[in-house]
C-alpha cells in the first residue's frame, strides 16, 4: 500500500513540505487510542535473536533511523512504533538556526536518491532536551554539530555545549564533522583538529560517573589514506566506534533532472561506496571497533550487505522515505532468516 498509494501521493508534494506534513499526520494518528499497538503488531519484529549488544548498549534489533529525519526529537516515540531498534536525533547545535535558504531538498526519483543542503536547521539543543526528558524506553542517539556562524577554531566549544546538554538524555553520541552543507565543517575531519575534538569530548566523558559511547560520523568521500587516519584516531582517542557514512558530494552515474544541485547525496547511488568504506575500516582495523552502516539501504539485501561487510548495526533514512516502514520489518525478518 505504501508504494502503490501513499508514496505517489506524498511525492506530488514539495519534499520539505511533505516532511512536515508527515510529522503532523503521524502525531495526530498516534494520538488515536490503540493505534500505536496496531502499528507495532504490523511492523515490529520481536525476537531475541535480533538483539545486539554494541558499545555496551543493548539494542532490541540492529535497524535504526539515521540522524536528520527527527532532528529536533519531536517524533521519536511515534517513529519507534515502526520497529526501529534505535533512533538518532539531530544534528543539534547549541543555538537554534534556520539552516540554508530554500529550496534545499530534492528528490531524484529516477535514481532513488535525495539531495539535501539543509544546513543543520534545528531548534537548538535545549529545545530538544525538553522533549527528550519525556522519553521512557526508546534508545536514542544524539548527533551533535556546530553552529554555522561558529568558526572552526571555536568548534570544540559548540560540541561541548551539546554534549553537556544532552548527556543525561541520550544513550550514545555522534560527532558530526562530515556534513557537506555547513561551510568548512569537513575541515574538522583532518587528523589534528579531529583528534583534538574527540580527545576533549572523551576527557569530559570520562569525568562523568558513568561514561557514554561517543561515535564519529564520517564522509564517504574520504580517501584510503584518510580512512587509515580515522582508524588511528579511533584508537588514539578511544571513542566507541564509527558511523559510515554521511552523504556524498559525488554525482557519478546520476540521471535525474536535479542531479547537479549542491548538497549531500543519499540513497541508492551511495550504497556501494558506503559498503566499501565499512569493509575497509573493518578489515584494516581488524574489527577493532563497532561500525554503524548507513548509506543506500533500500532493501533487506542492502542491509545484509552492510552487516556482512563489517557493520554491527545499520541505519536507514532515504530507504525509509522511498520504501516505507515495511523496510524495517523486512530487514529484521531477513536477518532472522539468515541467523
From TrEMBL:
<feature type="binding site">
    <location>
        <begin position="67"/>
        <end position="71"/>
    </location>
    <ligand>
        <name>FMN</name>
    </ligand>
</feature>
<dbReference type="GO" id="GO:0106430">
    <property type="term" value="F:dihydroorotate dehydrogenase (quinone) activity"/>
</dbReference>
<keyword id="KW-0288">FMN</keyword>
<feature type="binding site">
    <location>
        <position position="71"/>
    </location>
    <ligand>
        <name>substrate</name>
    </ligand>
</feature>
<feature type="binding site">
    <location>
        <begin position="317"/>
        <end position="318"/>
    </location>
    <ligand>
        <name>FMN</name>
    </ligand>
</feature>
<keyword id="KW-1003">Cell membrane</keyword>
<feature type="binding site">
    <location>
        <begin position="246"/>
        <end position="247"/>
    </location>
    <ligand>
        <name>substrate</name>
    </ligand>
</feature>
<comment type="function">
    <text>Catalyzes the conversion of dihydroorotate to orotate with quinone as electron acceptor.</text>
</comment>
<feature type="binding site">
    <location>
        <position position="176"/>
    </location>
    <ligand>
        <name>FMN</name>
    </ligand>
</feature>
<keyword id="KW-0665">Pyrimidine biosynthesis</keyword>
<dbReference type="InterPro" id="IPR005719">
    <property type="entry name" value="Dihydroorotate_DH_2"/>
</dbReference>
<keyword id="KW-0472">Membrane</keyword>
<feature type="binding site">
    <location>
        <position position="181"/>
    </location>
    <ligand>
        <name>substrate</name>
    </ligand>
</feature>
<keyword id="KW-0285">Flavoprotein</keyword>
<feature type="binding site">
    <location>
        <position position="176"/>
    </location>
    <ligand>
        <name>substrate</name>
    </ligand>
</feature>
<dbReference type="InterPro" id="IPR012135">
    <property type="entry name" value="Dihydroorotate_DH_1_2"/>
</dbReference>
<dbReference type="InterPro" id="IPR001295">
    <property type="entry name" value="Dihydroorotate_DH_CS"/>
</dbReference>
<protein>
    <recommendedName>
        <fullName>Dihydroorotate dehydrogenase (quinone)</fullName>
        <ecNumber>1.3.5.2</ecNumber>
    </recommendedName>
</protein>
<comment type="pathway">
    <text>Pyrimidine metabolism; UMP biosynthesis via de novo pathway; orotate from (S)-dihydroorotate (quinone route): step 1/1.</text>
</comment>
<feature type="binding site">
    <location>
        <position position="267"/>
    </location>
    <ligand>
        <name>FMN</name>
    </ligand>
</feature>
<keyword id="KW-0560">Oxidoreductase</keyword>
<dbReference type="InterPro" id="IPR013785">
    <property type="entry name" value="Aldolase_TIM"/>
</dbReference>
<dbReference type="InterPro" id="IPR005720">
    <property type="entry name" value="Dihydroorotate_DH_cat"/>
</dbReference>
<feature type="binding site">
    <location>
        <position position="91"/>
    </location>
    <ligand>
        <name>FMN</name>
    </ligand>
</feature>
<feature type="binding site">
    <location>
        <begin position="116"/>
        <end position="120"/>
    </location>
    <ligand>
        <name>substrate</name>
    </ligand>
</feature>
<dbReference type="Pfam" id="PF01180">
    <property type="entry name" value="DHO_dh"/>
</dbReference>
<feature type="binding site">
    <location>
        <position position="143"/>
    </location>
    <ligand>
        <name>FMN</name>
    </ligand>
</feature>
<comment type="similarity">
    <text>Belongs to the dihydroorotate dehydrogenase family. Type 2 subfamily.</text>
</comment>
<comment type="subunit">
    <text>Monomer.</text>
</comment>
<dbReference type="InterPro" id="IPR050074">
    <property type="entry name" value="DHO_dehydrogenase"/>
</dbReference>
<feature type="binding site">
    <location>
        <position position="245"/>
    </location>
    <ligand>
        <name>FMN</name>
    </ligand>
</feature>
<feature type="domain" description="Dihydroorotate dehydrogenase catalytic">
    <location>
        <begin position="50"/>
        <end position="337"/>
    </location>
</feature>
<feature type="binding site">
    <location>
        <position position="296"/>
    </location>
    <ligand>
        <name>FMN</name>
    </ligand>
</feature>
<feature type="binding site">
    <location>
        <position position="217"/>
    </location>
    <ligand>
        <name>FMN</name>
    </ligand>
</feature>
<feature type="active site" description="Nucleophile">
    <location>
        <position position="179"/>
    </location>
</feature>
